[in-house]
Specification:
4-stranded antiparallel sheet, globular, 3 helices, single chain
């Protein structure tokens, strides 16, 4: 039996939003304001727990940047698309 380990860091949309914004702005992720101040990270993760609805999308402002999380697993920050790993 082959086991697959869940990589919460790569599989969690909320953590990927933080990574995408940090990458886009050249900021250490730990220096960003907490994501929960603008969106409920648990709700975001639950909404996009699988990629079954490729047409779903959530947009919000975070740290002065436009963020969009899409059902296909991509995250866009100010129009720059960050593909899922």
């Amino acid at each position: 039996m082959v086991e697959s380990a869940l990589d919460h860091h790569n599989d969690s949309p909320s953590l990927r939003v933080i990574d995408a914004l940090a990458s886009t702005t050249g900021t250490d992720p730990l220096e960003l304001d907490p994501l929960y101040e603008v969106v409920d990270p648990e709700a975001l993760d639950q909404l996009f727990r699988d990629e079954s609805d490729a047409f779903a999308a959530v947009s919000f402002e975070y740290e002065g940047h436009s963020v969009e999380v899409r059902g296909d697993g991509t995250i866009s920050v100010d129009g720059t698309v960050h593909e899922p790993v």
